[in-house]
Specification:
Elements lengths: L2 H23 L8 E2 L5 E2 L2 E9 L4 E8 L4 E2 L2 E2 L4 E14 L5 E4 L3 E4 L5 E5 L5 E8 L7 E2 L5 H5 L1
Antiparallel strand pairs: 1-3, 2-5, 3-4, 4-11, 6-12, 7-8, 7-9, 7-10, 7-11
């Protein structure tokens, strides 16, 4: 095998291995969950539902974003609360500056405002999400967050 091909394969495998081990490096308190659909995420994001209570009108869950993974632009009719439980990532409300998120940060996504969130390029992120007044709707998915928007 020529050296260039070997180096390329080695580096590719190393990147895949580093990303797959990222979840194990985080201090996860919830299971990894199920892979989210490609139609709503760039990269791999895993969701696990924790509470679905129609009487209270509340949903609580956890999302793990692999490094570089992010949601599409989306909105929640009654807003959303994010609690970052580990890792680091970003959150941006349309028309505002992208925010860096770290463990312990709490984010309020205003009702009806387009926003996105996801992991940093090199480290995954765990977030607990809380949705209330789900009788108004849960989520409306919009456009993909471009690489330019993500990296800006």
């Amino acid at each position: 095998m020529n050296k260039l091909l070997f180096c390329t394969l080695f580096l590719s495998f190393g990147t895949i291995l580093a990303q797959s081990n990222d979840y194990d490096q985080l201090n996860s308190i919830f299971p990894k969950g199920n892979l989210g659909p490609e139609s709503h995420f760039t990269g791999n994001a895993f969701n696990v539902g924790l509470v679905y209570n129609q009487e209270m009108g509340t949903i609580v869950g956890n999302v793990y974003f692999e490094p570089g993974a992010r949601s599409n632009w989306h909105l929640h009719p009654s807003g959303q609360i994010l609690i970052i439980t580990d890792g680091e990532g970003y959150h941006q409300i349309e028309g505002e500056t992208k925010q860096l998120l770290k463990k312990g940060d709490v984010v309020e996504c205003p009702a009806g405002k387009l926003h996105w969130h996801g992991a940093s390029p090199k480290k995954g992120m765990q977030q607990m999400y809380i949705l209330t007044k789900i009788e108004n709707g849960i989520v409306e998915w919009k456009d993909v967050v471009s690489d330019e928007e993500y990296n800006n």
